[in-house]
Amino acid sequence: MWVLMKNGIVDVEATNAYNAAVLSGELPHESNEAQEEAELLQAVIQSVKEGIDPVTGQEISKAQGFSIISGLIFRYTAGGYKGKKFKFPKDWLRRRKKNNGVEVGTDFGKIGKLVNHPNIKINWSEHSEHGMSRLKQRGLSKSQVDDFVERGKALSQNGGEKFAFITENGVAIVSKDGKLVTAWGKKDFDEGMEKIINDWDPIELFPLAPKDEYSQEINKIISIVQENHNIDMNVLAKGIRKIFIDSFGENLIFKNNEDEIAEKILAL
Q1: I need a surface site. Which of 10, 47, 195, 268 has the fewest CB within 10 A?
Q2: By the 8 A CB rule, do 268 and 193 touch?
Q3: Cβ neighbours of residue 101 closer than 8 Å, sequence gap 6 or more
């Protein structure tokens, strides 16, 4: 399959028309599958680095871009890309997995460049005051952070002065000489979402209710955003309202500004 680009984004209409013409025999089929798919992956990465959705051409937030890039890193190595917008041939995916997923050297902009694991271990006697303070604040143990570093995908940052070790359970930022800079767990990714929903308080349960009162609904919203990187604000707003209607019933929802909440979430 060929992918046609226009102004740095995928031209869906032109791509479909071109591939239909190739399949019907109207155009010759001169294909180098590995090259085509590699170019597609590069186009997606470049688009995200520029803050542009690779399919719609709309601007996306840093959080949305990070989510897309993280998905590329993990999903290739864990069983293939599962996004709804881009589908890759199985044999190409097998080749990618054989080469350990996204290629070493792939540049993700400010997030860093994917590199081979630098075999760094945290020197706990040389940790930064900030790093240890964050561990205590976020309820992380040294063994958890050691695990992030040992198992994580390594991204070189600031020309190799420090590295980000990314796992599905958390992230550790470590200097090249093994000093812990900071770390956070999976739950910390979701704090921004929790604050937005709790401040909104559509059922008006606060201040009496505990902070995690809406955790069930928040997790469902997070799943929607993570599984649909290109989600439209109006679609997300309708999804948020449905989640709360399913949980509490329509008569107990005392606010109807889900569109404002969806906009805030997409700006995270």
Answers
A1: 195
A2: yes
A3: 73, 74, 76, 77
More confident residue, 226 or 171: 171
Q: What is the pTM of this model?
A: 0.47
Q: ω before 202 within 30° of 0 (cis)?
A: no
Residues 6+ apart with CB under 8 A from 12: 55
CA quadruple 250, 253, 255, 258: dihedral sign: negative
Three-state SS for 1-60 is CCCCEECCEECHHHHHHHHHHHHHCCCCCCCCHHHHHHHHHHHHHHHHHCCECCCCCCEC
Backbone angles phi, psi at 77, to 5 degrees: -80, -20
Spatial contact of 117 and 125, defined as CB atoms under 8 Å apart: no
- Residue 152, token pair as written in the block: 């994580």
* Closest to 10 measured CA to CA, from 40, 51, 48: 40
